[in-house]
Request: fold
Amino acid sequence: MGISALTPPPAPDGSTETHLEFADNRLLVDLCGEYDRNLTHIESLTGVQIVRRGNQLVLMGPPEARQPAADVLGTIYGMLQQGRTVEFGDIAALIRLRGAAPEDDGSPEQLEMFRAGKLEIRTRKKTISPRTRAQQAYTRALMENELNFGIGPAGTGKTYIAVAVAVHMFAEGHVDRIILSRPAVEAGERLGFLPGDMKEKIDPYMQPLYDALNDFLPGRQLQKLMEERRIEIAPLAFMRGRTLANAFVVLDEAQNATEMQMKMFLTRLGEGSRMAITGDRSQVDLPRGVQSGLRAAERILDGVEGIGFSYFTAADVVRHPLVARIIAAYDRDDAAGG
Reply:
């Protein structure tokens, strides 16, 4: 791994500095990131100060903070040596799994799995690795269960991972089609009549699904597959009367499906298909008094064989770190009855 490429190893004593030396300056540039943004991110998450001197990084701070930060830097360097791309969100994941941040979410086994890339979702355009323990469990559940629910706050990767698994299984020939759907419900605003034909009217509601697909498939290939209807993106209302066979089906924003719509959608499951249902119970945009189909399904289907439930918390947020703190603050307010 990358730690073996560092000399000398992190000092075990109580000195105020740890010196890490890197043999490959090109990889060191990638490790630091543009304008040293990766180092700044590690500093903010671990509480150490990192100074670059030639091919060395000098870590300053208490030993209990420097050691985890040094381990994370070594792990990132090792991943770069393997030719793997390290994204901004991977840094927070490594720190979380290493226990260098207060919201420790991992174990040595989970950390080693992330380092080695043992749990990966390969698509035509990129390969992604689940970044938290909940994401790892969710990925396995999507692979193993014919029907799986992903429930939790925004920014935890529920939809992104579900679409990645769908593209992976399509590319591997496990399914013949990908069908992505959402309820066409306005998020607390009345937008009025939208201009254009049917596709132009519904596309704004479906845009997050297009964004995810564009991350995993080259543009021309995606366009061709959509023209051939091997990939479909449609509002939930369009699912009525269909039998979805040999397909990977994703229902996003399921908290905005009514009980009747949810039952209708779940009963579309056909032979050789898999379904992923994602939603956030705290962001229901249905009219007052209308029960969320996600809440009802969670209650009714709990314990049914072949159906899995995966749950996420603010600790699993992989967007900007401030998003996790915002969600945690709202959760505390809800718990206090605010």
In short: The first helix runs from residue 25 to 32.
